[in-house]
């Protein structure tokens, strides 16, 4: 039958034993749309964190999502337009998870000439051939032939940006504000960020830089610095050195980059009088993409240009520690490469395999690692199952470890700018959390980064 038309099969055309089959793969957005439409926001379906603790250990589809597919067959193909539902029974045998492919098969078992009713046996099986749903439908079949052009439905994009942003900021509730030193915040975005985190009580901001010029810039942009302490420094390099010293000596619980380029800002940070520890510094990015069922952590996109295997051990452990802070007790970590097989021709695949073995031996702790994995097979269960990967991480990754800075930076920026994502990042591994800023980062993203740094600072307080 042409896909451009919907055509029914009348009561007289259908014979006992006739069948029709529909195949559909469950996507994350299917669950979201069904929840929005039905109002069923059971956390087993829409809350990945809760779902991990449930008996199924991951998000599952609403039972009636599968039931709706039976209705789809009846209403669009078998019998098709003109069909009237009379009765439906359903028995649910097992859950449907993201990436599962259901085959819905309807078989006509009885015909009633006196009222034009039909009985159908309805069976839904998954990609492994296991029965998921079974039931029986009774319908009033059409008696007149109907053929109509198929109506193309608009694409639906789900995005609750404000809600996702507020949820992230909500993590700061109940935490005592941390003292934060802004190093040479001589641009409007930095000053706006300092004013917001100060007035909302997230941080206690201290601004280090040319005081007169900073206050003039604030006045030009109508920014109230009443909640900020301004510490005068003659120029940008003096400002950064003073800010680093304040963080090193315990005057500030976090360090925040201002308008100085990242490479220049980091020089005193990693210098002999800086903020390094035995752990290598690395940047972790928290990014919440509306089309993905849960936020993702990406590392490293801003500090380590071409990390060695030894560097990647610290990068991975920093990201795992950050995932724990975000409430993920056993994060699934995907070590990314261009392919899923190990080959000496691609160093990233060798590093990925070595990191996984090091995790097996306890040299990396607190997470489940797998790699090498491609980006698609790391975040998409559908892609992982298509590639026939048997993995506890593939398709479900919480953390993505990039092979180098270029790959991580491009991946992160693509998600940030093309998917209406919200994001924030913090540098881990130092004496204090450090907030870096891309020149294109919005005030929203900068404030989100400050909240993440506050979580790190709070953990350090608890350890002390």
Protein topology:
Layout lengths: L4 E3 L11 E7 L2 H11 L4 H4 L1 H5 L10 H14 L7 E9 L8 E12 L4 E9 L5 E10 L6 E3 L11 H9 L8 E6 L4 H12 L3 E7 L1 H10 L8 E4 L3 H13 L5 E4 L4 H9 L11 E7 L7 E4 L9 H17 L6 E5 L10 H14 L7 E6 L1 H5 L1 H6 L12 E3 L3 H14 L3 E7 L5 E2 L7 H21 L1
Parallel strand pairs: 8-9, 8-11, 9-10, 11-18, 13-16, 14-15, 14-16
Antiparallel strand pairs: 1-7, 2-4, 3-6, 4-5, 5-6, 12-13, 12-17
Helix pairs in contact: 6-15, 8-9
Radius of gyration: 28 Å
What is the average of the pLDDT values? 92
CATH class bucket of the largest domain: Alpha Beta
Bin the strand percentage: 15-25%
Strand count, sense and barrel status of the largest sheet are: 6 strands, mixed
Briefly note the CATH topology name of the largest domain.
Isopropylmalate Dehydrogenase
Describe the structure.
The protein is of the alpha/beta class. The chain folds into 3 domains: 145 residues, Roll (Thiol Ester Dehydrase, Chain A), CATH 3.10.129; 116 residues, Rossmann fold, CATH 3.40.50; 151 residues, Isopropylmalate Dehydrogenase (3-Layer(aba) Sandwich). The protein is 35% helix and 23% strand. A hairpin with a 5-residue loop joins strand 5 and strand 6. Helix 6 crosses helix 15 and helix 8 packs across helix 9. The protein is elongated, with a radius of gyration of 28 Å. The termini are far apart. The model has no long low-confidence stretch (mean pLDDT 92).
């Amino acid at each position: 039958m042409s896909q451009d038309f919907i055509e029914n099969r009348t009561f007289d055309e259908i014979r006992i034993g006739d069948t029709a089959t529909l195949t559909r793969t469950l996507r994350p957005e299917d669950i979201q749309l069904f929840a929005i439409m039905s109002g069923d926001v059971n956390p087993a379906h829409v809350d990945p964190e809760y779902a991990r603790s449930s008996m199924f250990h991951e998000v599952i589809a609403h039972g009636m999502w599968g039931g709706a597919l039976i209705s789809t067959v009846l209403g669009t193909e078998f019998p098709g337009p003109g069909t009237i539902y009379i009765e439906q029974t359903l028995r649910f045998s097992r859950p449907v998870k993201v990436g599962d492919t259901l085959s819905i098969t309807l078989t006509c078992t009885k015909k009633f000439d006196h009222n034009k009713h039909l009985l159908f046996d309805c069976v839904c099986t998954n990609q492994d051939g296991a029965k998921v749903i079974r039931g029986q439908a009774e319908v009033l079949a059409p008696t007149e032939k109907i053929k109509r052009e198929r109506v193309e439905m608009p694409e639906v994009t789900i995005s609750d940006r404000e809600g996702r942003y507020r949820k992230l900021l909500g993590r700061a509730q109940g935490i005592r504000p941390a003292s934060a030193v802004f190093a040479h915040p001589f641009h409007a975005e930095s000053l706006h960020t300092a004013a917001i985190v100060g007035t909302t009580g997230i941080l206690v901001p201290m601004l280090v830089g040319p005081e007169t010029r900073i206050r003039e810039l604030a006045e030009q942009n109508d920014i109230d610095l009443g909640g900020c302490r301004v510490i005068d420094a003659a120029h940008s390099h003096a400002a950064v050195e003073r800010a680093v010293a304040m963080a090193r000596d315990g005057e500030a619980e976090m360090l925040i980059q201002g308008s100085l380029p990242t490479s220049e800002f980091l020089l005193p940070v990693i210098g002999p009088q800086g903020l390094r520890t035995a752990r290598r510094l690395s940047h972790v990015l928290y990014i919440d993409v509306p089309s993905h069922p849960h936020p993702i952590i990406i590392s490293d996109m801003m500090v380590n240009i071409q990390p060695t295997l030894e560097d990647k051990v610290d990068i991975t452990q920093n990201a795992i520690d950050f995932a724990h802070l975000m409430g993920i007790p056993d994060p699934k970590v995907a070590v990314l490469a261009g392919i899923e097989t190990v080959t000496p021709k691609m160093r990233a695949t060798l590093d990925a395999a070595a990191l996984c073995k090091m995790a097996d031996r306890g040299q990396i702790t607190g997470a489940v690692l797998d790699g090498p994995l491609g980006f698609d097979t790391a975040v998409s269960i559908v892609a992982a199952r298509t590639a026939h990967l048997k993995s506890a991480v593939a398709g479900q990754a919480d953390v993505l470890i990039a092979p180098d800075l270029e790959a991580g930076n491009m991946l992160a920026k693509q998600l940030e700018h093309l998917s209406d994502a919200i994001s924030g990042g913090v540098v881990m591994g130092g004496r204090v959390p450090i907030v870096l800023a891309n020149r294109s980062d919005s005030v929203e993203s900068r404030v989100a980064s400050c909240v993440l740094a506050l979580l790190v600072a709070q953990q350090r307080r608890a350890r002390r």
